[in-house]
TrEMBL record:
Assembly mode: Homodimer.
UniProt xrefs under SUPFAM superfamilies: PLP-dependent transferases (SSF53383)
Entry keyword Transferase: yes
One Gene Ontology biological process: biotin biosynthetic process
UniProt name for this protein: 8-amino-7-oxononanoate synthase
Organism: Cyanobium gracile (strain ATCC 27147 / PCC 6307)
EC nos: 2.3.1.47
Coiled coil: none
Length: 420
């Protein structure tokens, strides 16, 4: 007979029990969460497409009504375009859901090469490489052009992913005033005086996702060329909407070193890309860990993006029509007493100042059947919480009137307009 000693397991601590002894790292996290102001706390919310393509439905639905979507980046409504969906479905049947490996192992499919070649031709660039996400593409782009010996000059409102790329590269960082060519010139001159042969890199977006403003890309590129500083332009929100035929604001500016773009916005798909000349493209292929050590972009997403590109090429004026509609929305908001949202693209920020004010406005609009999101720090600078209104091609007629009625008179409206 074999005797087996049953040794009781050691006592465990419930991680979620605040009264139980906690290791220091857990206490630090708990204290940091407890210190968050209620108006600064975030939560996930589930939404599903409603029968009306311009609406989203809170899930579980219950008695909630569909909400007109004034928040997402699906500017052209291509995420539900029949041709885009059909292309993704066909590739799903042919290639499966995922690529199964990185591009340098067994993950490259014909659809990847087709999309890369089509994008390169459309953008007038020699080389395009696909990435699973825009965040990842921006990390790769910065790491390709910067290291610990580099001084990076970035627009003060640059996207977080590019800042993470700078930190990962070990480069030194300076921020120049938003869209201020003169301030960038001063900093470039100072950098060249300090280190005449030093490595430089300049970062900007073409359409800033929270501001709605557009960079003077041609002027920035000319300045960078004079000072031998490569320019990286994040075109994530401009492609498909701004520039000739929706090709972005860097189109035709040959001195731009890298263009970063995504498929999760106007293309209605997912994933991202970097576009450059042959030299920079080859360097990315050989050196980029963000490209080498990740599973390739899912083939159905690539197929959907290619179908979206075909649609954009067939309707080159769609971005211009959206910009014209955006101008009418800006006029309407200004006439109602709201500060005119800057820029001329489909992103219309409505600055409200405090977090609580922005959240209250979000709730007021949702009660009227309009879906917006209060954008609060750290996504935007302190004291500039806002509603980020997004104009989409598929919004029905009368959407602006519904918005103005829900917002009510703005702070700049005449006093008689504010009277009950």
């Amino acid at each position: 007979m074999v005797w087996v000693a049953l040794i009781p397991p050691p006592p465990t601590t419930e991680a979620g029990d605040p009264t139980a002894p906690q290791p220091p790292w857990r206490r630090q996290l708990r204290d940091a969460l407890a210190a968050l102001p209620p108006a600064r706390s975030r939560a996930l919310r589930t939404l599903e497409p409603a029968p009306d393509t311009a609406c989203l439905q809170p899930a579980p639905t219950g008695d909630a009504l569909p909400l007109l979507d004034l928040a997402s980046n699906d500017y052209l409504g291509l995420s539900r375009n029949p041709a885009v969906l059909a292309a993704a479905a066909a590739e799903l049947a042919a290639s499966g859901l995922g690529a199964g490996a990185s591009r340098l192992v067994t993950g490259t499919r014909p659809i990847h090469q087709q999309l890369e070649e089509a994008l390169a031709a459309w953008l007038g660039r020699e080389r395009v490489l696909l990435f699973p996400s825009g965040f990842q593409a921006n990390l790769a782009a910065v790491s390709a052009l910067a290291d610990r010996h580099t001084m990076v000059l970035a627009d003060r409102l640059i996207h977080h992913s590019l800042l993470v790329g700078v930190r990962a590269s070990g480069a030194r960082l300076q921020r120049f005033v938003h869209n201020d060519v003169a301030d960038l010139k001063r900093r470039l001159l100072a950098a060249r005086r300090e280190r005449p042969d030093g490595q430089l890199l300049v970062l900007c977006e073409s359409l800033y996702s929270m501001e709605g403003t557009s960079a003077p890309v041609a002027a920035l590129a000319a300045l960078c060329l004079r000072h031998d500083a490569p320019l990286l332009v994040d075109e994530a929100h401009a492609l498909g909407v701004l520039g000739p035929g929706g090709r972005g604001l860097a189109h035709g500016v040959g001195s731009v070193a890298i263009v970063s773009g995504t498929f999760g916005k106007a293309f209605g798909s997912g994933g991202a890309f970097l576009a450059a000349d042959t030299l920079v493209g080859d360097w990315l292929l050989q050196s980029s860990g963000a490209f080498r050590y990740t599973t390739a972009l899912a083939p159905p997403l690539a197929a959907g993006a290619l179908a979206a590109l075909v649609h954009l090429q067939a309707t080159p004026s769609v971005g211009l029509a959206l910009a014209q509609r955006a101008a009418r929305w800006r006029d309407g908001l200004e006439a109602a007493g709201w500060p005119r949202p800057p820029g001329d693209g489909p992103i219309l920020p409505l600055l409200l100042g405090g977090d609580a004010e922005a959240l209250a406005a979000q709730r007021r609009l949702e009660a009227a059947g309009l879906l917006t999101v209060a954008i609060r720090p750290p996504s935007v600078p302190e004291g500039t919480a806002r509603l980020r209104l997004v104009l989409r091609q598929d919004l029905p007629t009368g959407s602006l009137e519904r918005l103005l009625a829900a917002l009510g008179p703005g702070p700049l409206a005449p006093r008689h307009a504010l009277a009950p």
